[in-house]
Each structure stands twice: as structure tokens, then as C-alpha cells.
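C-alpha cells for chain A. Residues wanted.
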């Protein structure tokens, strides 16, 4: 099902975000799959000279394998728009909104998608008093992969109120989003675009050894068990898929997205809350989107090709406009 004629695709990966290493793993897997599909691939570890390197490479399309800032927040998307280069995944406006957890709430909640309450607080406030009753969650407003997330409980070893010298995200950020802690289970649903529109690939439950589903659990083998499909009631699975598709559509995501949930199973449908929608989901061997795709009968190389084909459709690329050709240029 590879695109004909083959394309020259620049895989943009790495960068300087907290998620650099994960992005490099995603990019390497994507590049291998694209070459397997017959495309000519240029791998680019993004530096500050990225515009110059892309201008020299002259790709037909960029496969955006970056995670976090600046590859997921609209910065790279805006640059590529200005350069007139087509790219995979979501565009500028969607990226700006989706990486900002508060803007995401403002976009999704009016459409009937339940999300936790809460508010943005300055870290100076935290040292005076708790912004919410404990337990509550503190997280950066615009970081991915659960970077910088802390759960503040009655037993937390951070003081009450939080001590200025205690270890936590308040040491790295000026502002944080405070949300009530939702007990229960971690669920996630991937969505992929296709000829018939966006479709959900299923629901995975994430069972962790200790703590919560943070960056270390996401990318350290053995720390998290993936149960796919999740062992949950059919009505909860259906609701997860419904919310994921609606979030994908409301935010204007392209290619693929992944929506994460907390579900308090004692509350049934009322206990399901969307935490965020990720517009640049990981594509590593431990990543959730490729895993769900496999369960839906879509292999890794096919998944990568579907994302490329959606970008071609969105950006209106015609066969006669492509340079294509050959294998394996680095």
C-alpha cells in the first residue's frame, strides 16, 4: 500500500526537549519503515539550523517524529508552513492548543468531553497554601509524556504547605496546573485518520508497578503492563473511543492522536475523565499507538504509511509534484 511514486521523506527527530531520546527511537523506527516501504529517507536530528538543513534536503514531505517542545507545540509546524513544506501530524493551531492542558480543557469540555477541574497556579502560591484539597496533581501546562508531574498527598514528603526546597516540578517551572487527583485506572485510546475519517484503534489499560504512569514508566521496559484490549466493560470502552474520536475532531488533529484517561471504576461512566490528547504519540517499540494498531490488524510499516498518506491528502500533494526515488539517504 506504499505511495506511488515513492517520496523523499525527511524524518525530523531528536531536538533538545526532555523527550529527545524517545524521539530518536521513534524516528529510527519510522525511517526504517519508510525505507521498507520504498521511500528515500533523510534522517535529521533537529538543531537550531533546522530551516537551513530542510532547505538543502528539499524533501517532498517531513515526517514529524519530534516529541514535546518545539516539535509538538506549533513552533516547527509554523516554520514548515512558512517554508511551504508538507508534514505529518497536526498543524499549527491544533498543536498550540493540544500541548497546553488548560487550552485543551477550554476546547473539549464545551463539547461534552469530561476533564478534571482545577486551575493554573504560580509556584509561589504553592509555598503559601495548597491550591486544592489533598490529594491533588501538579503538572506543567505544556509538557508531554508526563514530564514534571507530581501527586501531592497527605503523606507527601514535601511539607504542608509545600516547602520551597522540596524536590518537585515547582523547582523547574514558574506555573503549574493543579487538578484534583482521580483515583482509579489508566486507560488510553489511539485514533488514526483514513479514507473513512478518524477511527479509534481500541483501548489499552496501563498497569504500573508503583506510583503513576510517568515518563519513566512510559519508556522503561518492565515498569508498565499494557493490557490491550483493556479488560473493562463494553460501555466504558465505547465511551473511551467516542471521546477520543471527538477530541481528535474538535482539536483538528491529523494523522494520528492518542487520548489518555483516568477511570474511577467505582463511579461507572461518571468516573471517566480525559486527561489530555497527544498529537505526536510515540512510535517506539514500547509505544501505545503501534501496539493498538497491531491489535487492529495494522503492522508498523503500514501504520507509518497511513500517516504519510493522510499528510499527502491534507497538504494536497500530487504525484507530479514529488521528487521521490531510491533508497536510504542519511
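Reply:
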Amino acid at each position: 500500500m506504499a505511495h506511488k511514486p515513492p517520496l523523499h521523506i525527511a524524518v525530523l527527530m531528536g531536538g533538545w526537549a526532555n523527550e529527545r531520546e524517545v524521539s530518536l527511537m521513534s524516528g529510527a523506527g519510522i525511517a526504517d519503515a519508510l525505507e521498507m516501504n520504498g521511500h528515500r529517507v533523510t534522517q535529521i536530528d533537529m538543531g537550531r539550523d533546522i530551516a537551513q538543513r530542510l532547505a538543502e534536503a528539499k524533501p517532498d514531505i517531513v515526517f514529524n517524529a519530534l516529541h514535546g517542545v518545539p516539535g509538538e507545540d506549533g513552533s516547527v509546524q509554523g516554520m514548515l508552513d512558512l517554508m511551504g513544506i508538507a508534514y505529518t501530524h497536526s498543524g499549527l493551531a491544533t498543536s498550540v492548543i493540544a500541548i497546553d492542558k488548560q487550552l485543551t480543557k477550554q476546547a473539549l469540555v464545551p463539547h461534552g468531553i469530561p476533564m478534571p477541574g482545577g486551575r493554573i497556579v504560580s509556584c509561589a502560591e504553592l509555598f503559601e497554601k495548597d491550591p486544592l484539597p489533598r490529594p491533588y496533581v501538579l503538572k506543567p501546562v505544556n509538557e508531554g509524556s508526563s514530564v514534571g508531574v507530581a501527586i501531592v498527598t497527605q503523606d507527601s514528603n514535601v511539607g504542608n504547605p509545600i516547602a520551597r526546597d522540596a524536590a518537585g516540578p515547582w523547582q523547574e517551572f514558574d506555573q503549574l496546573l493543579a487538578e484534583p487527583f482521580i483515583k482509579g485506572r489508566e486507560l488510553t485510546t489511539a485514533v488514526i485518520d483514513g479514507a473513512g475519517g478518524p477511527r479509534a484503534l481500541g483501548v489499552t489499560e496501563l498497569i504500573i508497578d508503583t506510583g503513576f504512569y510517568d515518563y519513566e514508566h512510559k519508556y522503561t521496559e518492565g515498569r508498565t503492563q499494557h493490557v490491550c484490549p483493556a479488560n473493562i466493560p463494553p460501555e466504558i470502552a465505547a465511551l473511551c473511543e467516542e471521546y477520543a474520536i471527538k477530541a481528535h475532531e474538535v482539536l483538528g488533529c491529523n494523522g494520528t492522536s492518542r487520548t489518555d484517561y483516568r477511570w474511577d471504576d467505582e463511579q461507572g461512566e461518571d468516573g471517566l475523565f480525559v486527561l489530555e490528547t497527544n498529537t505526536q504519540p510515540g512510535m517506539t517499540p514500547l509505544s501505545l499507538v503501534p501496539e493498538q494498531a497491531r491489535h487492529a490488524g495494522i503492522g508498523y510499516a503500514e501504520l507509518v504509511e497511513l500517516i504519510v498518506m493522510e499528510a499527502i491528502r491534507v497538504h494536497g500533494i500530487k504525484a507530479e509534484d514529488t521528487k521521490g526515488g531510491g533508497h536510504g539517504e542519511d
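Confidence is low (pLDDT under 50) at residues 212-220, 326-330. The CA atoms of residues 148 and 172 lie 8 Å apart.
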